[in-house]
């Protein structure tokens, strides 16, 4: 079955490209969604894309991924730093979970530095701008062994070395 990825975005990310471009750039969330969809088409996989300002709604979306998605790519935004509910929901989901941040949260102020939700994720990507979403998608499909032959061989992974 073709890989199924759910992409989730937390509070205020609907203002991407509109406010604070010096931190988050000028790309809008709609442009990110469109480029994720374009990449999904090229990879022959399916993607759903959501944004919510409500913690409970994000929890419900994660729960709804059970049995319906192979991976969750999530930018929890401010909930990264506060949400035990998101941690618990992510722990229940047994597929691949990649946390994405557009900015490099490790180089940010104290308030925006310590993601607690990343403890419930498989991997974290930050500081790559909107490209982080595409990098996460490629990583998911590579991990599932579903990268199509149209993707250059060098991107299919590094062979396991011999001692
Ligand atoms: O870099 C990221 O992707 C963040 O998750 C964005 C969050 C921030 O709290 C995290 O530290 C890092 C903030 C999202 C707020 O979105 C805005 C978009 C435009 C203007 C202002 C805020």
Strand-helix topology:
Blueprint: E1 4-9, H1 21-24, H2 29-43, E2 46-51, H3 55-64, E3 71-75, H4 84-92, E4 96-101, E5 123-126, H5 131-143
Parallel strand pairs: 1-2, 1-3, 3-4, 4-5
Helix pairs in contact: 2-5, 3-4
The site of ligand CA2 has 16 residues, from loops.
* Unreliable runs: none
**Biggest sheet: strands, sense, closure?**
5 strands, parallel
Distance between the termini: 35 Å
**Mean pLDDT metric:** 95
What percentage of residues falls in helices of 4 or more residues? Answer: 25-40%
Report the CATH architecture.
3-Layer(aba) Sandwich
Record keyword descriptors for this entry.
Rossmann fold; 163 residues; alpha/beta; 5 helices; binds ligand CA2; 17% strand
Q: Would you summarize the structure shown here?
A:
This protein is of the alpha/beta class. The chain has 5 helices and 5 strands. α2 (29-43) runs parallel beside α5 and α3 packs parallel to α4 (84-92).
């Amino acid at each position: 079955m073709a890989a199924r990825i759910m992409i989730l975005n937390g509070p205020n990310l609907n203002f991407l490209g509109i406010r604070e471009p010096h931190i988050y750039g000028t790309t809008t969330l709609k442009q990110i969604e469109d480029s994720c969809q374009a990449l999904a088409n090229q990879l022959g996989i399916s993607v759903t894309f959501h944004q919510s300002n409500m913690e409970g709604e994000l929890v419900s979306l994660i729960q709804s991924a059970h049995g319906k998605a192979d991976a969750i790519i999530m930018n929890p935004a401010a909930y990264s730093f506060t949400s035990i509910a998101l941690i618990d929901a992510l722990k229940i989901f047994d597929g691949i979970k990649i946390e994405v941040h557009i900015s490099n949260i490790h180089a940010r102020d104290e308030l925006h530095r310590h993601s607690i939700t990343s403890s419930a994720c498989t991997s974290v990507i930050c500081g790559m701008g909107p490209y982080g979403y595409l990098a996460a998608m490629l990583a998911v499909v590579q991990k599932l062994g579903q990268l199509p032959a149209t993707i250059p061989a060098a991107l299919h992974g590094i062979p396991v070395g011999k001692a």
